[in-house]
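Practice problem: predict the structure.
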Amino acid sequence: MIEKFKTLFVVKSSLISLYIALTIPIPFLSSDKLKIASIIFFFLGLYLITSLTSDFVEIDEKKIYYKTSFPSNLFGKKNWEIFWRDIKLIKSLPTSQGSKVFYLTLNNDENYLVPQRIKNLEKLVNLITKKTNDNVDAKQINYLTPLWTYKLLTALSVLMIFGEIVFLIFKYYQD
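Answer:
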């Protein structure tokens, strides 16, 4: 049976709402010559940010897979698959923000970053421990940043969007 772990909705929505908040005014404020181009680039960017946040992990009896979209591949995020028997240990490294990232270290000493922004991370951690016959302790893996930070970013982005809409209504109403 294949289990799939998608990117957390709160992560995806925070990044998409921030993108919209930062770019939606551009088509309205650009000159007439650039309006169509700015609208096209807005939708292209929206497609890219949605694609870049659509990565996921799959697990079956033999392997763990990390799957990315085509745009993610273009930006350097690569698909990978690892046999459970090849995982030697989980290595943690500190980030400059004070949290930790985790790597699956293989028997040949290759390292693969463990995705930490996915739904049901605790279930994934338990499956990694189980599938490696308890040889690898994955219990130390947790979310990269607290989930409230994504919720706050979403709320602030939505407030920005609301403010921009109000501004544009008043701007065009006065003209």
